[in-house]
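User: Can you predict the 3D structure for this chain?
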Amino acid sequence: MIMNGGADIPQKALWGSPDKLLRIGDVDVECYVLEDGRRVLSGRGMQAAIGFGGKAITHGSKLRAFLEQ
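Assistant: Here is the predicted structure, written as structure tokens:
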């Protein structure tokens, strides 16, 4: 289950798999489709795609700032 934007209503991923990745540029990112049709991408995969490789805990604030631009 994937949480709905931090809300209390969990969303089930209907499609997607860690074995079937979405290629963005030179990076493979986990991608899933939720019950309500929304697509979600792996946070770690997106961090790698924009050059913030490594552990998510060290780049969380950088990713947040990037997304808020």
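Residues 2-68 form one domain. The beta strands are 2-3, 10-11, 13-15, 22-24, 27-29, 31-34, 39-41.
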